Amino acid sequence: MTDSFNPVISRRLMLRHIAVAAGAVASLPLLARPALARADAAPASGTAAKSALQYQDHPKGTSACANCANYIPGKDPKADGRCIIVAGDISPKGWCLAYAGNG
Q1: Which of 51, 72, 74, 91 has the largest count of CB atoms under 10 Å?
Q2: Domain holding 56: CATH number?
Q3: Into how many domains does the chain fold?
């Protein structure tokens, strides 16, 4: 009676499997590199035109870009920033239809 669950693995086949596994493990950091680059990059500026979203350089009541969830602040609080939705430079005192409060 032969045991079908005990296959004989040659030394050459075992070395080949080890080499393939080592190559796969060595390539893992290369596969993670593009994902890390995307995570480190700043969010891209929006693509919607200011006119399409009725952007204005002054607030609407208490709603202003500075307290909008889509706003990316500039280098200092008074500097123009960017928006995830609206294209171009965005005033922290501005407002548009894409306004989304942070609360």
Answers
A1: 91
A2: 4.10.490.10
A3: 1
